[in-house]
Amino acid sequence: MLWLFTAMYQLVYYSEQKDLVDRQRYDIVALGKAITNAESGQRGYLLTGHTLFLDTLERGRSETSTVMAKLDAQAQSLTLLRPGLQRIRQLVHQKFDILDQNIQVQLHAGEFSPHLSLSKDKGREVMKLIDDELLDLDRKLAHLRENFEHEIRKRMLASVVGGVLLGVVIIGVLLFSYRSTTLLLEQVLETQAVAKQASHQADHDLLTGLPNRRSVGVHLDNTYQLARHTSKQFAILFMDLDGFKLINDKYGHEVGDALLIEVANRFKKVLRQSDFLARQGGDEFILVVSNYLYRQELTQLAQRLIQLFSEPVMVLGLPLEIGVSIGIAEYPHHAKQVKQLLHVADKAMYDSKKSGKNRYSFGSETR
Ligand SMILES: Nc1nc2c(ncn2[C@@H]2O[C@H](COP(=O)(O)OP(=O)(O)OP(=O)(O)O)[C@@H](O)[C@H]2O)c(=O)[nH]1
């Protein structure tokens, strides 16, 4: 990571250095042009005597000193230029002295003075030296530029490789954290499912899937509280199969189990949404009916439940004959407490057994 940042930092640094070198090369050309402009102004004046050309000379002089100042400032960061610039500065002074002298000589001694011609030769010589120095400086800068370009290419490659590596690392971390999160989520969901299953198993009978004895207690308590506060009635139908032991003994527990499942399914078929059916244990079932108006509805329901087993029940290919004895207790008519009500219903169921089985009986009032 640090390596990538270093490479990127250096990339920016070398790019800036390269731009600086480009500006210096441009200024070196500009310097040469400014001196030449000044020289052509001087020459024009010498040839024509027009003072207009003196303006060109002065403009060239001022451009020259501006560019020289720029180059000096840039040389602060590039020490390599300093000696060359120092020499150029001296030569430029010399050059402008000669230009000025030529003008003075012509003004005082005339155009064809021997001093003037000597001075012209000297001027050309100095200009040649300036050009050579400028060329040398440009060569050095061109070489420096190449070096910077080479460094830039290296840092670009390093940045690209570093970027790709960093990308791979980031993707790897993201994938890893995604995978861990998914695994964690799966574990949480699994734990929740196990907890839900455990809670379902605690409240339900494993064989038939119906609510178990524990649920009967909870449901009856809730129904009782609601009925008490709303002054409504509800009924318990206590149901016990007739002749179940015989089937168990004759065909074995496997058939007995299958029969219990079938019985539960048949009971469900005649129930309404609001009815609550549970397996109390063994071959006993409890039905809580809380949505009825007349006792007659209970007798009709009991008859339908008994009717379910009027024909032999086919289980695992066996025609099994069973019946159901039912005891009915109503709140608040038969009892005003849940426990008593259950007792009344149980007793009524035994009354049905005693009076010949496969029938229903209502409980007797308890006070
Ligand atoms: N297959 C099986 N049998 C069970 C289960 N739970 C209890 N039993 C048996 O169910 C029988 C219930 O006994 P009873 O109610 O006396 O049998 P019954 O033949 O219906 O007798 P009555 O009620 O007098 O008609 C017993 O033999 C228990 O062993 C179970 O989950 N599966």
In the sheet with the most strands, the strands line up as 2-3-1-6-7
- Average pLDDT confidence is 90
Major sheet, described briefly? 5 strands, mixed
CATH class of the largest domain: Mainly Alpha
**Strand runs, count:** 7
- Could you state the order of secondary-structure elements as H and E? HHHHHEHHEEHEEEHE
Q: DSSP strand (E) fraction?
A: 5-15%
Tell me the number of structural domains.
2
- Computed over alpha carbons, the radius of gyration is 57 Å
Name the bound molecules.
Answer: guanosine-5'-triphosphate
What share of residues is helical?
over 70%
Number of helices: 9
Provide the CATH topology of the largest domain: Four Helix Bundle (Hemerythrin (Met), subunit A)
- Give the class from helix and strand content and strand pairing: alpha+beta
Note poorly predicted spans: none
Shape: rod-shaped
How far apart lie the N and C ends? Answer: 87 Å
CATH architecture heading of the largest domain: Up-down Bundle
Descriptive account of the structure:
The chain is rod-shaped, with a radius of gyration of 57 Å. The mean pLDDT is 90. α1 (2-48) runs antiparallel to α4, α3 runs antiparallel to α4 and α6 (244-251) runs antiparallel to α7. With 367 residues, the chain is of the alpha+beta class. A hairpin with a 2-residue loop joins β2 (276-281) and β3 (284-289). A 5-stranded mixed β-sheet has the order 2-3-1-6-7, with helices on both faces. It has a two-stranded antiparallel sheet with strand order 4-5. The longest helix is centred in the middle third of the chain and has 90 residues, at 114-203. The chain has helices spanning 2-48, 52-74, 82-109, 114-203, 213-230, 244-251, 253-269, 295-307, 338-354, and strands at residues 234-242, 276-281, 284-289, 313-315, 318-320, 323-331, 360-362. The protein binds guanosine-5'-triphosphate. InterPro entries: CHASE3, DGC-Regulatory_Protein, GGDEF_dom, Nucleotide_cyclase, Rev_trsase/Diguanyl_cyclase. Keywords: Membrane, Transmembrane, Transmembrane helix. It comes from Methylophilus medardicus.
